[in-house]
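ingest -> validate -> predict -> emit
validate: passed (alphabet ok, no gaps, 336 aa)
predict: started
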Amino acid sequence: METAKKEHQLIVSVSPHVKSEETTSRIMWSVTASLLPAAVMGAYFFGPRAVITLALCIITAALSEYGYQKALNRKASVSDGSAILTGLLLGMNLPASVPFYIPLIGSFVAVVITKQLFGGLGYNVFNPALIGRAFLLISFPKLMTIWTKPEAAFIRMDAVTTATPLGILKEEGAAKLMEVFGDKINLYTQLLVGHRAGSIGETSAIALLVGAAFLLYRGYISWHIPVSFLGTSAVLAWIFGGKGALFAGDPIVHLISGGMLLGAFFMATDYVTCPSVKKGQLLFGAGCGFLTMLIRLKGGYPEGVMFAILIMNCFSPLIDRGFRTKVFGARKEARK
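emit:
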Protein backbone atom coordinates (compact mmCIF):
# COMPACT_ATOMS: atom_id res chain seq x y z
CA MET A 1 0.00 0.00 0.00
CA GLU A 2 2.87 2.33 0.89
CA THR A 3 4.61 1.59 -2.43
CA ALA A 4 1.44 2.33 -4.43
CA LYS A 5 1.08 5.72 -2.80
CA LYS A 6 4.67 6.63 -3.64
CA GLU A 7 4.20 5.65 -7.29
CA HIS A 8 1.24 8.03 -7.67
CA GLN A 9 2.84 11.00 -5.97
CA LEU A 10 3.05 14.20 -8.00
CA ILE A 11 6.61 15.12 -8.94
CA VAL A 12 7.18 18.84 -9.37
CA SER A 13 10.31 19.98 -11.23
CA VAL A 14 11.63 23.26 -12.59
CA SER A 15 10.81 24.42 -16.10
CA PRO A 16 10.82 23.69 -18.94
CA HIS A 17 8.00 21.18 -18.58
CA VAL A 18 7.42 20.73 -22.32
CA LYS A 19 10.25 18.84 -23.96
CA SER A 20 10.93 18.09 -27.60
CA GLU A 21 13.20 15.74 -29.47
CA GLU A 22 14.27 18.61 -31.74
CA THR A 23 17.81 19.85 -31.19
CA THR A 24 19.77 22.74 -32.61
CA SER A 25 21.82 20.31 -34.66
CA ARG A 26 18.77 18.57 -36.13
CA ILE A 27 17.15 21.89 -37.08
CA MET A 28 20.32 23.21 -38.72
CA TRP A 29 20.86 20.06 -40.76
CA SER A 30 17.17 19.97 -41.72
CA VAL A 31 17.30 23.54 -43.02
CA THR A 32 20.47 22.64 -44.91
CA ALA A 33 18.67 19.68 -46.49
CA SER A 34 15.74 21.91 -47.47
CA LEU A 35 18.13 24.13 -49.44
CA LEU A 36 19.60 21.28 -51.45
CA PRO A 37 16.96 21.28 -54.25
CA ALA A 38 17.69 24.94 -55.01
CA ALA A 39 21.44 24.34 -54.73
CA VAL A 40 21.22 21.42 -57.17
CA MET A 41 19.27 23.54 -59.65
CA GLY A 42 21.88 26.28 -59.34
CA ALA A 43 24.61 23.75 -60.06
CA TYR A 44 22.63 22.42 -63.03
CA PHE A 45 22.22 25.83 -64.65
CA PHE A 46 25.58 27.40 -63.79
CA GLY A 47 27.88 24.39 -63.96
CA PRO A 48 31.12 23.50 -62.12
CA ARG A 49 31.86 27.06 -61.04
CA ALA A 50 28.68 27.08 -58.97
CA VAL A 51 29.59 23.77 -57.31
CA ILE A 52 33.11 25.00 -56.51
CA THR A 53 31.77 28.30 -55.12
CA LEU A 54 29.30 26.50 -52.85
CA ALA A 55 31.95 24.03 -51.69
CA LEU A 56 34.46 26.79 -50.92
CA CYS A 57 31.87 28.71 -48.89
CA ILE A 58 30.89 25.66 -46.86
CA ILE A 59 34.45 24.43 -46.23
CA THR A 60 35.76 27.89 -45.33
CA ALA A 61 32.84 28.53 -42.98
CA ALA A 62 33.44 25.22 -41.16
CA LEU A 63 37.21 25.71 -40.96
CA SER A 64 36.83 29.32 -39.79
CA GLU A 65 34.57 28.30 -36.92
CA TYR A 66 36.77 25.36 -35.96
CA GLY A 67 39.98 27.39 -36.10
CA TYR A 68 38.55 30.30 -34.12
CA GLN A 69 37.19 28.06 -31.36
CA LYS A 70 40.39 26.04 -31.13
CA ALA A 71 42.48 29.22 -30.97
CA LEU A 72 40.47 30.29 -27.92
CA ASN A 73 40.51 26.79 -26.38
CA ARG A 74 36.76 26.45 -26.79
CA LYS A 75 34.85 23.32 -27.65
CA ALA A 76 34.40 23.02 -31.41
CA SER A 77 30.77 23.18 -32.48
CA VAL A 78 31.08 22.56 -36.21
CA SER A 79 29.04 19.37 -35.87
CA ASP A 80 25.90 21.34 -34.97
CA GLY A 81 25.63 22.34 -38.64
CA SER A 82 25.25 26.10 -38.12
CA ALA A 83 28.52 26.98 -39.86
CA ILE A 84 27.71 24.61 -42.71
CA LEU A 85 24.31 26.27 -43.13
CA THR A 86 25.87 29.75 -43.07
CA GLY A 87 28.36 28.76 -45.76
CA LEU A 88 25.65 27.22 -47.93
CA LEU A 89 23.41 30.28 -47.63
CA LEU A 90 26.28 32.60 -48.47
CA GLY A 91 27.23 30.52 -51.49
CA MET A 92 23.65 30.53 -52.72
CA ASN A 93 23.67 34.33 -52.54
CA LEU A 94 26.76 34.68 -54.76
CA PRO A 95 27.01 34.83 -58.55
CA ALA A 96 28.61 31.77 -60.10
CA SER A 97 31.11 34.02 -61.88
CA VAL A 98 32.95 35.30 -58.78
CA PRO A 99 36.68 34.53 -58.39
CA PHE A 100 37.36 31.72 -55.95
CA TYR A 101 38.89 33.99 -53.31
CA ILE A 102 35.52 35.75 -52.87
CA PRO A 103 33.85 32.80 -51.07
CA LEU A 104 36.86 32.52 -48.74
CA ILE A 105 36.63 36.15 -47.64
CA GLY A 106 32.86 36.15 -47.35
CA SER A 107 32.68 32.98 -45.27
CA PHE A 108 35.36 34.22 -42.87
CA VAL A 109 33.50 37.51 -42.35
CA ALA A 110 30.17 35.69 -41.91
CA VAL A 111 31.37 33.14 -39.36
CA VAL A 112 34.19 34.79 -37.42
CA ILE A 113 33.30 38.49 -37.43
CA THR A 114 29.50 38.34 -37.53
CA LYS A 115 28.92 35.23 -35.45
CA GLN A 116 31.85 34.19 -33.26
CA LEU A 117 33.03 37.64 -32.19
CA PHE A 118 29.52 38.32 -30.90
CA GLY A 119 29.59 35.19 -28.75
CA GLY A 120 28.75 32.36 -31.12
CA LEU A 121 25.45 30.77 -32.13
CA GLY A 122 22.49 32.55 -30.58
CA TYR A 123 24.28 35.84 -29.86
CA ASN A 124 24.74 37.35 -33.32
CA VAL A 125 22.66 40.45 -34.03
CA PHE A 126 22.62 40.14 -37.82
CA ASN A 127 22.20 37.22 -40.19
CA PRO A 128 25.80 36.01 -40.74
CA ALA A 129 25.39 34.96 -44.38
CA LEU A 130 23.82 38.30 -45.32
CA ILE A 131 26.56 40.28 -43.57
CA GLY A 132 29.11 38.21 -45.49
CA ARG A 133 27.36 39.03 -48.76
CA ALA A 134 26.97 42.71 -47.86
CA PHE A 135 30.68 42.94 -47.08
CA LEU A 136 31.53 41.39 -50.43
CA LEU A 137 29.11 43.64 -52.32
CA ILE A 138 30.61 46.75 -50.74
CA SER A 139 34.22 45.58 -51.17
CA PHE A 140 33.93 44.04 -54.66
CA PRO A 141 30.86 45.67 -56.28
CA LYS A 142 31.88 44.89 -59.85
CA LEU A 143 32.66 41.22 -59.22
CA MET A 144 29.45 40.77 -57.23
CA THR A 145 27.24 42.12 -60.02
CA ILE A 146 28.48 40.05 -62.95
CA TRP A 147 25.76 37.52 -63.68
CA THR A 148 26.19 34.31 -65.65
CA LYS A 149 23.76 33.23 -68.33
CA PRO A 150 22.27 29.83 -67.39
CA GLU A 151 23.35 27.23 -69.94
CA ALA A 152 22.34 23.97 -68.25
CA ALA A 153 25.67 22.54 -69.38
CA PHE A 154 27.51 21.12 -66.41
CA ILE A 155 30.78 20.37 -68.17
CA ARG A 156 31.41 24.00 -69.16
CA MET A 157 33.71 26.21 -67.08
CA ASP A 158 33.39 29.33 -69.24
CA ALA A 159 30.32 31.51 -69.04
CA VAL A 160 28.41 34.19 -70.92
CA THR A 161 27.36 37.17 -68.84
CA THR A 162 23.89 38.71 -68.96
CA ALA A 163 21.54 40.82 -66.85
CA THR A 164 19.05 39.54 -64.30
CA PRO A 165 15.30 40.06 -64.89
CA LEU A 166 15.21 42.65 -62.10
CA GLY A 167 18.27 44.35 -63.57
CA ILE A 168 16.60 44.58 -66.98
CA LEU A 169 13.41 45.91 -65.41
CA LYS A 170 15.36 48.48 -63.38
CA GLU A 171 17.78 49.72 -66.03
CA GLU A 172 15.93 49.28 -69.31
CA GLY A 173 12.29 49.05 -68.33
CA ALA A 174 9.44 46.63 -68.82
CA ALA A 175 9.52 46.98 -72.61
CA LYS A 176 13.01 45.44 -72.73
CA LEU A 177 11.94 42.67 -70.39
CA MET A 178 9.06 41.90 -72.72
CA GLU A 179 11.49 41.83 -75.65
CA VAL A 180 13.78 39.36 -73.87
CA PHE A 181 11.14 36.96 -72.57
CA GLY A 182 8.33 37.52 -75.05
CA ASP A 183 5.23 37.18 -72.91
CA LYS A 184 4.16 36.67 -69.31
CA ILE A 185 3.70 32.92 -69.58
CA ASN A 186 7.26 32.42 -70.83
CA LEU A 187 8.63 34.79 -68.18
CA TYR A 188 6.78 33.02 -65.37
CA THR A 189 7.93 29.64 -66.66
CA GLN A 190 11.59 30.68 -66.83
CA LEU A 191 11.49 32.20 -63.35
CA LEU A 192 9.76 29.18 -61.81
CA VAL A 193 12.11 26.65 -63.40
CA GLY A 194 15.23 28.73 -62.87
CA HIS A 195 16.44 29.43 -66.39
CA ARG A 196 17.47 33.04 -65.70
CA ALA A 197 20.53 34.93 -64.53
CA GLY A 198 21.01 35.54 -60.82
CA SER A 199 22.70 34.20 -57.72
CA ILE A 200 23.33 30.47 -57.52
CA GLY A 201 20.52 29.67 -55.11
CA GLU A 202 17.83 32.10 -56.19
CA THR A 203 17.25 30.72 -59.68
CA SER A 204 14.53 28.08 -59.35
CA ALA A 205 11.44 29.34 -57.54
CA ILE A 206 9.94 25.84 -57.57
CA ALA A 207 12.98 24.33 -55.85
CA LEU A 208 12.89 27.04 -53.18
CA LEU A 209 9.17 26.50 -52.59
CA VAL A 210 9.72 22.76 -52.20
CA GLY A 211 12.30 23.40 -49.49
CA ALA A 212 10.06 26.00 -47.83
CA ALA A 213 7.12 23.56 -47.80
CA PHE A 214 9.31 21.02 -45.99
CA LEU A 215 10.27 23.55 -43.30
CA LEU A 216 6.65 24.61 -42.82
CA TYR A 217 5.49 20.99 -42.63
CA ARG A 218 8.08 20.13 -40.00
CA GLY A 219 7.28 23.28 -38.04
CA TYR A 220 10.80 24.67 -38.23
CA ILE A 221 9.42 27.97 -39.51
CA SER A 222 5.98 29.53 -39.23
CA TRP A 223 3.96 31.33 -41.88
CA HIS A 224 4.03 34.72 -40.18
CA ILE A 225 7.24 36.21 -41.61
CA PRO A 226 7.08 34.74 -45.15
CA VAL A 227 3.40 35.62 -45.67
CA SER A 228 3.72 39.17 -44.35
CA PHE A 229 7.00 39.63 -46.28
CA LEU A 230 5.63 38.39 -49.60
CA GLY A 231 2.18 39.91 -49.10
CA THR A 232 3.51 43.39 -48.40
CA SER A 233 5.89 43.15 -51.36
CA ALA A 234 3.11 42.04 -53.70
CA VAL A 235 0.74 44.85 -52.68
CA LEU A 236 3.41 47.54 -53.02
CA ALA A 237 4.57 46.15 -56.38
CA TRP A 238 1.00 46.22 -57.67
CA ILE A 239 0.30 49.76 -56.44
CA PHE A 240 3.61 51.50 -57.12
CA GLY A 241 5.32 49.26 -59.70
CA GLY A 242 4.11 51.30 -62.65
CA LYS A 243 1.36 51.00 -65.21
CA GLY A 244 1.12 50.90 -68.96
CA ALA A 245 3.69 48.17 -69.64
CA LEU A 246 3.38 44.42 -69.68
CA PHE A 247 5.55 43.58 -66.67
CA ALA A 248 5.52 46.88 -64.77
CA GLY A 249 3.63 46.61 -61.51
CA ASP A 250 3.32 42.84 -61.82
CA PRO A 251 3.60 41.44 -58.26
CA ILE A 252 4.27 37.89 -59.47
CA VAL A 253 7.43 38.98 -61.28
CA HIS A 254 8.75 40.61 -58.11
CA LEU A 255 7.81 37.65 -55.90
CA ILE A 256 9.59 35.00 -57.96
CA SER A 257 12.53 37.15 -59.11
CA GLY A 258 15.77 37.85 -57.31
CA GLY A 259 16.24 36.74 -53.73
CA MET A 260 12.64 37.26 -52.60
CA LEU A 261 11.76 33.61 -51.91
CA LEU A 262 15.22 32.72 -50.60
CA GLY A 263 15.11 35.67 -48.23
CA ALA A 264 11.50 35.32 -47.09
CA PHE A 265 11.61 31.61 -46.22
CA PHE A 266 15.23 30.87 -45.37
CA MET A 267 16.92 34.07 -44.15
CA ALA A 268 14.32 36.36 -42.62
CA THR A 269 13.10 33.41 -40.52
CA ASP A 270 16.47 32.90 -38.82
CA TYR A 271 15.69 32.07 -35.18
CA VAL A 272 18.40 34.29 -33.72
CA THR A 273 17.87 37.48 -35.71
CA CYS A 274 14.08 37.61 -36.08
CA PRO A 275 11.47 38.36 -33.39
CA SER A 276 10.26 35.42 -31.32
CA VAL A 277 6.72 36.76 -30.77
CA LYS A 278 4.26 35.85 -33.55
CA LYS A 279 2.68 39.30 -33.77
CA GLY A 280 6.14 40.78 -33.88
CA GLN A 281 7.05 38.44 -36.72
CA LEU A 282 4.16 39.82 -38.78
CA LEU A 283 5.51 43.33 -38.31
CA PHE A 284 9.05 42.15 -39.03
CA GLY A 285 8.00 40.50 -42.29
CA ALA A 286 5.95 43.51 -43.35
CA GLY A 287 8.94 45.75 -42.68
CA CYS A 288 11.16 43.53 -44.81
CA GLY A 289 8.65 43.62 -47.65
CA PHE A 290 8.26 47.40 -47.45
CA LEU A 291 12.01 48.05 -47.46
CA THR A 292 12.60 45.54 -50.25
CA MET A 293 10.13 47.22 -52.58
CA LEU A 294 11.30 50.69 -51.55
CA ILE A 295 14.82 49.78 -52.68
CA ARG A 296 13.68 47.96 -55.80
CA LEU A 297 11.32 50.66 -57.02
CA LYS A 298 12.94 53.85 -55.76
CA GLY A 299 16.53 52.98 -54.86
CA GLY A 300 19.66 52.54 -56.92
CA TYR A 301 19.80 48.73 -56.63
CA PRO A 302 17.53 46.39 -58.59
CA GLU A 303 17.46 44.08 -55.54
CA GLY A 304 16.71 44.96 -51.93
CA VAL A 305 16.08 41.76 -49.96
CA MET A 306 19.50 41.64 -48.30
CA PHE A 307 19.44 45.24 -47.09
CA ALA A 308 15.82 44.96 -45.96
CA ILE A 309 16.45 41.92 -43.75
CA LEU A 310 19.62 43.38 -42.24
CA ILE A 311 17.86 46.65 -41.40
CA MET A 312 14.96 44.82 -39.79
CA ASN A 313 17.42 42.67 -37.80
CA CYS A 314 18.26 45.88 -35.94
CA PHE A 315 14.66 46.23 -34.82
CA SER A 316 14.09 42.63 -33.70
CA PRO A 317 14.83 43.24 -29.99
CA LEU A 318 12.64 46.35 -30.00
CA ILE A 319 9.80 44.50 -31.72
CA ASP A 320 9.99 41.67 -29.20
CA ARG A 321 9.91 44.18 -26.36
CA GLY A 322 6.88 45.93 -27.83
CA PHE A 323 4.89 42.72 -28.30
CA ARG A 324 5.94 40.89 -25.15
CA THR A 325 3.21 39.20 -23.15
CA LYS A 326 1.72 41.19 -20.29
CA VAL A 327 2.15 39.69 -16.84
CA PHE A 328 -1.19 39.45 -15.06
CA GLY A 329 -1.34 39.94 -11.32
CA ALA A 330 1.79 42.08 -11.16
CA ARG A 331 1.66 45.60 -9.81
CA LYS A 332 3.41 48.51 -11.46
CA GLU A 333 5.78 50.41 -9.26
CA ALA A 334 4.52 53.85 -8.40
CA ARG A 335 6.46 56.65 -10.06
CA LYS A 336 8.08 59.06 -7.65
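The beta strands are 147-148, 161-162.
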